[in-house]
Design goal:
The complex is a heterodimer of chains A (262) and B (541). Chain A has seven helices and eleven strands. With 262 residues, chain A is of the alpha+beta class. With 541 residues, chain B is mostly helical. Chain B is 65% helix and 0% strand. Chain B contains 16 helices and no strands. In chain B, 55% of the residues are buried. The chains are: A alpha+beta (262), B mainly alpha (541). Chains A and B meet through helix 1, helix 6 and helix 7 of A and helix 3, helix 5, helix 7, helix 8 and helix 9 of B.
């Protein structure tokens, strides 16, 4: 009884220390997304469209725009993200081109517009509604300066994995006409209703904080080569179960000491 | 009845006033302390719920902004789950009636029992205090999902430590009950002569002891990660966010059985008493509690069908989820069979039980909709889920907590309450409940996502109906509580056995004396044998 009491008190003291420490320890995540809702992205950035033309963002963003940042040879979440975005665009009860436009930009500056065009063809083909035109969804590439400025403005932090791929998060961004960030939609799957709500708000140049914060990350993991040296969960689980069996054993086989009324 | 005894409410101790309660090791006083605490927290959380429904009256901003809404639904969830419904019935009625029902003077470890209450209160105040600390109210939802709970700038670490302290309280209570049931039964009270409420508490105790440490470990890992930046769950640091969900639900799914099993135990007490008939399928009900507790450990991943776990895992977990319906069905059918050809009195507790069977059946059947893979993906994270768990948790556990309050109130306080007022309250609660939550099934089916502050205009008329439901439900709750509070002072004195029950608590005076039994009872037959105990049949009025 007393031991348990001291143990709990000791834990409490530990938590207070931990709490104090955690206040002083805030730093920018190396990979992930820092929300910059309500801030503006620079509209003078230039990107190459898949048809070879160069656009500034200002030329495109004359109405609410949905931006997605991917890279085209991505082995992870970029494909599902764009597939889901295409499905959402397909199902949304708004008119592409009139109510909104979509821009997909590669954040790998080594990629070419030929690859971008290939991706554009396959995604536009997957959309079954026929009121979407070729100019409503841009697939673009850019140089490292423009990419850096854009990702920085959107709070999108990514890094190279040392080989040819990147570690990054999945999200789309809804931008209002004046370049203001209206909303972040996290994850790789988007509900048409969410996107509609965000676009309608962007139209009114409002911005709201995220309501559905799921951060999908793209990272390389090789399940066979990577095992834990010390499997904490397994050890903790075994110790716990062992304790429980000992407890049950004591209850069943050891007689109580006079506490029992009979 | 012997008039010379001193009831536990009036007994003199070395402390005076409030200290004679908060330092008391009497299981009955501790039960009442829990009751006061929990009903207070429940009222706060209901108030928050009403505020949330008010905000949802119109799309966009009605009363306050999205940050506030996030904080409110987190607080509503944390209070309702961790401060009310998980400890709920075991801590209140388990403490009060478990020793009496097995013929004991107290629980095995009375001081540990008081310590558990103190931990509960400390944990509760920590949870509520985390609102006012720098960083602002926690906005991560009661599930504390990573990575957001690692990144949120609000005071997540402190809220987590509150949950950890509450977890300790829960483990110690479970440990205490298990030991009491094994060690303290009166002579002749074999396992199969125990009342079914005790069986339910026994199963619950094991879940508390085995499952709660898992959430403790999860919380500690999350704190370590938040504080020292060790990559356990955060993918940016090489961790795995799905691991968090596994660990969290390995506890939190069995925890829903911590919530519902004791409630089912109370139902198994009330029905025989008001049907004046032995329970149908005693052993089946007793073992179905253990079966639910056991199978309940192997279904957790049904909360994670959309996280990208493998198809094999999803199918296995879906199948196992369906298995839980079997022991639950066993109970429901046995209860209904007990009523068949019984001599039924439609007392207030039985009416609450009837409401429970209706609401819980809806909750249980929609649980199957969520348990099957294809429909789960459609309704995942929508209002359908919100409606489902309010039907099982509120319509199940909380309604039975109210039933238990009306069943045992005369025994606990020695006073009767106004039955008419209690029935009127039930009508309001029942109607309000269905208007409030049934519309949420439809909203969810139509695609309204949960936890959203804002919504598209086409959902509005259903949101309005649902909000009106909350305005019917809350007056019902108020009438019920006020009725009981007034009866505390002004109620007529209750006899030893107002309902004609035959379990041991009805053989001691109301309210019971400090050590429960003046003369130890001798147990010769099962707990619900009405015909063989004519002296315990309903007293003449």
């Amino acid at each position: 009884m007393k031991k348990i009491f001291y143990f709990v008190i000791a834990l409490q003291i530990l938590f207070i220390v931990v709490n104090l420490y955690s206040f002083t320890n805030k730093k920018k995540p190396e990979v992930g997304i820092e929300e910059r809702t309500g801030e503006k992205i620079p509209l003078n950035l230039q990107f190459n469209n898949s048809d070879g033309k160069i656009f500034t963002l200002e030329q495109i963003i004359d109405r609410p725009v949905v931006i997605s940042l991917v890279y085209y040879h991505c082995p992870g979440i970029c494909t599902p993200l764009l597939t889901s975005l295409a499905q959402t665009v397909d199902r949304i009860k708004l008119k592409p081109g009139k109510d909104f436009k979509v821009i997909t930009i590669s954040f790998d500056h080594t990629e070419t517009i030929e690859t971008a065009q290939k991706w554009k063809d396959s995604y536009l083909e997957s959309i079954s509604r026929n009121d979407i035109s070729h100019n409503d969804w841009y697939f673009m590439t850019g140089d490292s300066t423009n990419i850096y400025k854009l990702t920085e403005a959107l709070g999108f932090n990514f890094k190279s994995d040392g080989a040819k791929d990147f570690i990054h998060a999945g999200s789309i961004y809804v931008i209002a006409k004046n370049g203001k960030i209206a909303r972040y939609l996290f994850g790789t799957e988007f509900l048409p209703a969410d996107l509609k709500m965000a676009i309608l708000e962007a139209k009114k140049e409002m911005s709201s904080p995220t309501i559905n914060k799921i951060l999908a990350m793209c990272y390389s993991y090789d399940p066979e080569g990577q095992t834990y040296k010390l499997n904490v969960t397994r050890i903790a689980g075994s110790v716990m179960l062992l304790g429980v069996f000992v407890f049950l054993g004591v209850l069943l086989f050891k007689k109580g000491k006079g506490r029992r009324v009979n | 009845m012997n008039n010379e005894y001193v009831s536990f409410l009036k007994v003199k101790t070395k402390y005076k006033g409030i200290f004679s309660w908060i330092f008391s090791t009497d299981h009955k006083r501790i039960g009442i302390l829990y009751m006061i605490g929990m009903l207070t927290f429940f009222s706060i959380a209901v108030g928050i719920g009403v505020l949330m429904k008010l905000e949802m009256l119109t799309p966009g901003k009605t009363l306050y902004g999205p940050e506030m809404y996030n904080a409110l639904f987190t607080l509503h969830g944390v209070i309702m789950i961790f401060l009310f419904i998980i400890p709920g019935i075991p801590a209140i009625f388990g403490n009060f009636f478990l020793p009496i029902q097995i013929g004991a003077a107290d629980v095995s470890f009375p001081r540990l029992n008081l310590f558990s209450w103190w931990l509960f209160i400390i944990g509760s105040f920590m949870a509520i205090a985390s609102l006012f600390f720098s960083g602002g109210p926690v906005d991560v939802g009661w599930t504390f999902y990573v990575p957001y709970s690692l990144r949120s700038t609000t005071n997540v670490t402190f809220a987590l430590s509150a949950v950890l302290v509450l977890g300790f309280s829960s483990i110690l209570t479970g440990l205490n009950f298990i030991t009491t049931i094994h060690r303290m039964r009166v002579k002749g009270m074999t396992f199969f002569k125990m009342p079914l409420f005790v069986w339910a508490l026994y199963s619950t105790g094991w879940i508390q002891v085995i499952a709660t440490p898992v959430v403790g470990i999860t919380i500690i890992l999350t704190m370590v990660e938040r504080t020292f930046g060790v990559g356990i769950f955060d993918p940016a640091l090489g961790g795995d966010p799905i691991l968090y969900q596994h660990l969290f639900w390995i506890y939190s799914h069995p925890a829903v059985y911590i919530m519902i099993l004791p409630a089912m135990g109370i139902v198994s007490e009330i029905i025989p008493t008001f049907a004046q008939r032995t329970i149908f399928g005693y052993k089946a009900i007793a073992f179905s509690s253990l079966a639910i507790a056991f199978v309940g450990y192997f279904v957790w991943a049904h909360h994670m069908f959309t996280t990208g776990i493998s198809d094999t895992a999803r199918m296995v977990f879906s199948l196992l989820t369906f298995l839980v319906a079997i022991p639950s069905g066993v109970k429901i059918f046995n209860w209904v069979a007990t009523l068949y050809k019984g001599s039924i009195t439609l007392g207030v507790p039985l009416l609450y039980v009837m409401a429970f069977i209706f609401l819980f059946s809806i909750g249980g059947l929609t649980g199957l909709v969520l348990g099957s893979l294809a429909t789960n993906v459609q309704t995942h994270d929508t209002y359908f889920v919100v409606a489902h768990f309010h039907y099982v948790m509120f319509g199940g556990t909380a309604i039975i907590l109210f039933a238990g309050m009306h069943y045992w109130f005369p025994k606990m306080f020695g006073k009767m309450y106004n039955e008419k007022a209690a029935k009127i309250a039930l009508v309001f609660i029942f109607v309000g409940f269905n208007v409030l939550y049934f519309t949420m099934f439809i909203l969810g089916y139509m695609g309204m996502p949960r936890r959203y502050w804002d919504y598209l205009p086409e959902y509005q008329y259903l949101h309005i109906i649902s909000t009106i439901g909350s305005w019917i439900l809350v007056p019902g709750l108020i009438i019920m509580f006020v009725n009981l509070l007034i009866s505390l002072k002004k109620g007529k004195p209750a006899s030893m056995n107002p309902w004609g029950g035959v379990t041991l608590e009805w053989t001691v005076p109301s309210p019971p004396p400090l050590e429960n039994f003046d003369k130890l009872p001798v147990i010769t037959n099962g707990p619900y044998e009405f015909a063989q105990k004519p002296e315990n049949l309903k007293e003449e009025k």
